[in-house]
Each structure stands twice: as structure tokens, then as C-alpha cells.
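anyone seen this seq b4? input:
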Amino acid sequence: MKLNARDATAWIARPPADRPGTLLYGEDGMRVALKRQELLANLLGKDAEEEMRLTRLQAAEIRRDRALVSDAIKAQGFFPGARAVLIEDATPQHADAILGALSDWQPGDAHVVVVAGLQKPSSALRKGFEKHPAAACIAIYGTPPTRAEIEAELTAAGLDRVSADRVAELSVLAQAMGPGDFRRLVEKIALYKASDPAPLSSEDIAACAPASTEAALDDVLNAVADARTADIGPILRRLEAQGVTPVALAIGAGRHFRTLHAAASDPGGAGAGIGKLRPPVFGPRRDAILRQAQGWGAARLDEALKVLTDTDLALRSTSRAPQMPLVERAFIRLSMMGRG
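predicted toks r here
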């Protein structure tokens, strides 16, 4: 039977013990693997591998010996508890052996978990599970996790006091990350908060989120955008000593001011625009960008981007003018513009 997204989530969270099998298929191998891992953990509980309650079969083995699936389903182990047979890398060519074993399934037999790549509607494997009256067919799409899935991830990691606002921030972040990276982020946050009884905050998320590519330039870019002209020279000297090139500074500044422009130009205002930024920003950096976007406004940011474009062209030209002073002059000019 074909399950929709809501029923699939419920099935994976609490796999019915009296059903013969589940097909998980999708184009994104990482997302499928994570759902497979979750399904087996919920179905078998702890120590399934050690207690030999999980039998793993490769699809290539099935083609050589079609009886392997039936034998694995019927086999009885020494330990009590639910059992499962995992078949990975299945294709439509393995449909007959798998579906034939499902037709002989009886209560008490092992649950069959089949993992496959993208299956066309005409796939014999997919059609067989969709038409089966008791087995589940679940498509795993390459979409960001839903709010319910994010809350489940947080609960599984031991983070059970997370406000709706923080879940919303994580939802935005999940859209810019792969599923494996997002799961590692949740695990990192759980470790970060292990001895902290305070509720999860935006600052906590920002501290654990992957560093932005602009992080090394944040000091000087904030000095420019906040009109702290006197700070620009000393910060540039420090960055130059660290090996940051003038071109990298110009590129970083252009990216930063385009971010401000995108936020300031939103019809709903900078507050609405900042929520649409990709990659998303959180914590103190979000507050700084919002403040800067509101302070500059779209019109002045247009002018700032023209200055940065001219500077970038000058850096890439054949001119022999010293490049770092060229960037410093542009940054000072921008900081003066920012004073209104």
C-alpha cells in the first residue's frame, strides 16, 4: 500500500509488528538511508545486531539464490524480540524474489525492509509494494524536513524544551543543509546544551551552526556597515597579515552588501527580508544584518554596491595601483556613506 507523507512518518516512527514489509525508495541516498536507520531502530530496538535479529542481504545475492529472502524471513534466532531482513540496493529485477517471499509471510516471520533508489511508476518492485494489502511503500523525496520531523529529531537528541521560534529557525537552517549535516547539527546542539538547563536560544544555534564563508571578514565588514571608520584601518592591517587578499575583501564586501540589499528591498521590510536569506543567518549576526539593512535602506545600498563594483573592476584591471589601499579607500568611503 502506498503511504502519504503523514502516514509514512507515523509508520516509520512506530512500525507495525504484524506487517510483512516496507519499501523505502528515493533519489537521495542519504535521506533514504536515514529513514531506513530510523525505521529499523524503532522496529527492532537496541542490540538488534548483537542479538542477530537483523539479517542483511545484498540485492546481488538474491539474484544468485532467490530462496535467500524466504529462508531469512522464516529463520528463528536465539534471542526474543522483533526480527527484520534488510535488502539494500534493490532494483525491479529483484521484484519477483522479494514479492514472492512476502506472499509466503506469516505472523511471527521477520519484517522485510527493502531499500532502493528512484523507482519509476512502472517499476515492478514499486507496483508490487503499492498493491500489497499489508506491506508499505514509502517514497523519500529530496525535500527539507517538516516541522514534525525536526521536532522528532530534537526529541531523539534529548532536546525537549525547544520553543516554536527556535524550531522555526532550525527549519530555515534545514533548508540550506543536507539531511546528514542537519542531523549532525542537532547532535552538536545537544552536546552543547548537555549541562545547560536554560532553554535553547538563537545564540546557541548560531554557536553550533556551520561557520559562514564570510566569518573571517565579519569584523571589517561590520565596521564598514556600522560606519566605524576609525576601526577599518587597524582591522585591515590584521587581515592583511593573516594573508587575506584585497580581492577576497572586495568579494566578501560585495556579498555582505548584497545580503543587506536583499533584506532592505523586501516588500515586507527588512524584518521579512532577513527571514528569506539563503543561507539563513541566526543569533548576533542576524541582529547585526537586520540593524544594518534598516539603517542603510535600499537606496543607499544601491549606491554602495556601485562603489564595490567599481572597486572590484579596478582590482581586476591592469592598473598598477596598490590594491590594499584601493580597498581601504572604498571601505572608508562606504563607512562615510553609512552615516547618512
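The chain has a mean pLDDT of 85. The longest strand covers residues 84-90. kinda curious what u guys think
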